Amino acid sequence: MQETREKIWNHLSGDHYAKHLGIKVLEWGDGRAVxxxxxxxxxxNAHGTVHGAVIFALADTVFAVACNSYGKTAVxxxxxxxxxxxxxxxNRLRATAEEVKAGGKTGWYxxxxxxxxxxxxQLDALAYRKNQPFIND
Length: 137
Fold this sequence. Notes:
single chain; Thiol Ester Dehydrase, Chain A; alpha+beta
């Protein structure tokens, strides 16, 4: 089991965009993931707050790790985001993805993004899980 888990992580940690943004996955397991991102100046919009695309990218990263954590290729069918509060330069954003319901080929996930002051964004996401594993046992 540990060898399989390592193979899954080796595959999932190859997300070049997440690496470029500085996203660090702190925890992951069956249907869940937690990651953090330190907000840099290049991540700000014209109003001086964190660009929505950065918040979404962090949420999408934990969603991808959570729904692919079983070793089968999973892709997003839909994601709905609510931006609830701004993030700012110097904030550490933390995203948590939790599997709410999985059955057959789909999985429903709830993703929260928070900063030091509280909830920044909330997402609901639907994943489609393909039959083929992306690792070889």
